[in-house]
Write a structure and sequence with these properties.
By secondary structure, the protein is mostly helical. The protein has one domain. Helix content is 79%, strand content 0%. The protein is rod-shaped. The model has no long low-confidence stretch (mean pLDDT 88).
Length: 62
């Protein structure tokens, strides 16, 4: 760890590049809209009836 810190301390270009990459990753992975859309897709897949299994409402009407 100490060697990695020393390397970063001695290399401003490396620090800048790693910082830019980290920022881009966080913006892409933790964006509120991205995560909301992921959750919506997950919930839709959970509640969507499959072709072989009717929805709960379909079962009630049959």
């Amino acid at each position: 760890l100490a060697d990695a810190i020393a390397k970063l301390a001695a290399d401003p270009a490396l620090r800048k590049r790693l910082g830019r990459n980290a920022r881009a990753l966080v913006q892409a992975e933790f964006d509120i809209e991205v995560n909301a859309n992921r959750l919506i897709t997950i919930f839709q897949n959970i509640i969507a009836p499959t072709k072989s299994q009717p929805s709960t409402i379909g079962k009630l009407w049959n």
